[in-house]
Amino acid sequence: MNIPEKLTGLKNKKTFLIIVTALCLSIALGLYSFAAGSGEQAVVEEIKEVTVKKGDLKINLVADGQAELATVGLSFQINGVIKEIPVHPGVQVKAGDIIARLDAEKYQLELEAARAGYEVAQARLAKAKDDYDNKLIAAKEKMDNAMLVYQPMSEVPDIFPAQDVALKKLAADSARDAYEATKQATSDIQVEEAAVSQALVNLKKAEKNLDDTVLKSPVNGTVLYIAGKVGETAAGGGDNTDKQFAVVSTSDAVAVIFQVLELDIAEVAPGQAAEVEFEALPGETFSGQVGGIEALPVSDPSGIVAYEVSVLLDQPEARIKNGMTGAVSLIIEQKKDVLNIPNVAVHRFDGATVVEMYNEAGEIVTRKVKTGFTDGSNVEVIDGLQQGDKLIIRTTPASQGGKA
Predict the structure, then answer these.
(1) How far, in Å, are 65, 198, 300 from residue 259 at the CA level?
(2) Topology of the domain comprising 76-102+215-244
């Protein structure tokens, strides 16, 4: 073959390549134009690998609650200046231990005055009784003397002048009447007895006031709160919670109080398992059980009705303070320590429940499984898988219009 023939062959090959390349570009552009025109684009799946694991599955009811410790509020019954506070919050106390003491000088003086007043009243009563007894003796003696004169004359009135007999009789009757009147004249004694009773009340009150200068714990427990300091004035508030001087817990028990809407209250029962997570103790879960459900409802201005429920913690700790807030989870149903996988890993294929996983060759295959309880996110695996098996979940990125 000569040179011109070789050049002609090369030209034919170049022309062929150009035609093939142009044809491929045309097909590619046509496909792109079709996809763009139809609003569709190629779908790219993402494959995520998950591991079969053991854990707890549960369906729960969640509400906000507040910790409440069983407590006793202590208050001074009288006003006074705080002289001593031998305890502080966190200290364990026994029934009868002193919490605080007021300056007792004023009340000691009042007691001494009340005791003296009582003694005076008793002396006045004794004198009134002596006076009564003396008057009664004198009246009886006068009556007896008058009768002593009149009695013989009344037996033989004919030998005495009638006028004398009448006069003696009148004297005897008058003496007897005077005696009876004296017997009934006990008003002075009654007045003094009333005075003694009042003086005794004043004495007992003064004694109590002196005793009340010392505030004692009525129970064994832990001091949670002290309101005042030495040198400050404590106001006697009685049972007024606003004037409580100290608070003592009566036991180690901790209850968490929360409200459940009337629509959900049928799902709650005494003894039901619960879990509590306190905001102040992040990452820690405290187990417990429903202790009680209030029979009477509470409602807010909008008319929403709820019931107050208490959960008693199984293992309360000193770190849990009165009033701490937390999330209460009432366990409606649960399975503990079971094999479980995400719900999205399970599919239905040819009437069977299956999952996708890699075989030893690295190929994606399906495997039949038997599932059970689900909490809505994960499902229990009863048969078909073992702990540690690797499954795959196919997802479509949200940017391509699929579910992530």
Answers:
(1) 7, 53, 12
(2) OB fold (Dihydrolipoamide Acetyltransferase, E2P) (2.40.50)
CB under 8 A, 24+ apart: contacts of 124-133: 124/192, 124/195, 124/196, 125/189, 125/192, 125/193, 125/195, 125/196, 127/192, 128/188, 128/189, 128/191, 128/192, 129/189, 131/188, 132/185, 132/186, 132/188, 132/189
- What distance in Å separates the CA atoms of residue 190 and residue 185, rounded to the nearest whole number? 10
Residues 356 and 394: beta-carbon distance below 8 Å? yes
Q: Calculate the CA 203 to chain-centre distance.
A: 41
Which long-range contacts link 32-40 to residues 24+ away (Cβ below 8 Å)?
A: none
| Confidence at 241, pLDDT banded by 50, 70, 90 | low
Tell me the domain boundaries of the chain: 1-42, 54-60+249-400, 76-102+215-244, 107-210
* CA distances for 27 relative to 17, 19, 35, 347, angstroms: 15, 12, 12, 38
Give the pLDDT confidence of 100-145 residue by residue, as tens digits.
Answer: 999 999 999 999 999 999 999 999 999 999 999 999 999 999 999 9
* Tokens matching residue 262: 């009337």
Domain 107-210 has CATH 3.40.50.80: no
Tell the CATH superfamily of the 54-60+249-400 domain.
Efflux pump adaptor protein, beta barrel domain (2.40.30.170)
The edge-to-edge listing of strands for the beta sheet with 80-84 is 214-216, 98-102, 80-84, 233-234
Residue 237: is its pLDDT beyond 70?
no
The one-letter code for the residue type at 215 is L
Say if residues 143 and 178 touch (Cβ distance below 8 Å): yes
| pLDDT tens per residue across span 279-306 | 999 999 999 999 999 999 998 888 899 9
Q: What is the pLDDT of residue 25?
A: 42
Q: Residue 22: what pLDDT? A: 45
> Which residue(s) pair with 349 in the sheet?
352
Closest CA to 188 of 120, 117, 126, 115: 126
d(CA 118, CA 122) in angstroms, rounded, equals: 6
Phi/psi class of residue 362: alpha, beta or left (left: φ > 0; alpha: ψ in -120 to 50)? left
Q: Which amino acid is at 271?
A: G
pLDDT digits (tens, 9 = 90+) for 211-221: 999 999 999 98
Q: Does the reported pTM lie above 0.85?
A: no
